[in-house]
Amino acid sequence: xxxxxxxxxxxxxxxxxxxxxxxxxxxxxxxxxxxxxxxxxxxxxxxxxxxxxxxxxxxxxxxxxxxxxxxxxxxxxxxxxxxxxxxxxxxxxxxxxxxxxxxxxxxxxxxxxxxxxxxxxxxxxxxxxxxxxxxxxxxxxxxxxxxxxxxxxxxxxxxxxxxxxxxxxxxxxxxxxxxxxxxxxxxxxxxxxxxxxxxxxxxxxxxxxxxxxxxxxxxxxxxxxxxxxxxxxxxxxxxxxxxxxxxx
Length: 248
Fold this sequence. Notes:
The chain has helices at about 10-20, 35-40, 60-70, 85-95, 105-120, 150-165, 170-180, 190-205, 235-240, and strands at about 1-5, 25-30, 45-50, 75-80, 95-100, 125-130, 130-135, 140-145, 145-150, 210-215, 215-220. The protein is of the alpha/beta class and about 250 residues long. It has two domains: about 1-120, 3-Layer(aba) Sandwich (Rossmann fold); about 125-240, Winged helix-like DNA-binding domain superfamily/Winged helix DNA-binding domain (Arc Repressor Mutant, subunit A, Orthogonal Bundle), CATH 1.10.10.10. It has a five-stranded parallel β-sheet, with helices on both faces. The chain has a four-stranded antiparallel β-sheet with strand order 6-7-8-9, covered by helices on one side. It has a two-stranded antiparallel ribbon with strand order 10-11. Helix 2 (about 35-40) runs parallel beside helix 3. The longest helix has 15 residues, at about 105-120. The radius of gyration is 19 Å and the shape is elongated. One of its GO terms (cellular component) is cytosol. One of its GO terms (molecular function) is transcription cis-regulatory region binding.
């Protein structure tokens, strides 16, 4: 999951970034509201964590302009402003949640998970698609009630596909989700991860939900793919597995 942190206090931003990365989030940080708006126009984030007191413009203006631009990315306000009027104003502008400082890191992570679930149409921390179930809290997967072991990268890819079900995800989107622009490997490593994930799901008799959208990326559909898209042992695939994959 990719988060945009908009925080002008560098010490606070450092602590927040460390806490969120420890919870397996990819975090981009900016101290400026204008820069945050520009980043949100060009990059796809799962949620924004926003301080209201910024150096250039108010956080309220960030929310207002974000919604005016029809960008629906969820916004969690994390602020030192305790007054009820501040919360009411933030919600009226289009914020999705409000947490005051000082805060508990566990509560912040729980709220971020809840916001993301709701924005994607899920009400519970257990996400179910056909006979596949993901537990966002334990980062675990089961198929028809039987646990399925996935590597960290495989789980992250499946989680992103499930959360953004019925949406085509490009390889760039997967790379950003997995690496956040830091030491990204070659793009075809995504094909390797998807191939391994599909094989594990197939071996566990999971519903065939992941489809390739040629020239664009991958999509997870709610209805099983009856065409049974099988990935053969092609020369390309064999060569793909020779890519030096980073530690998973």
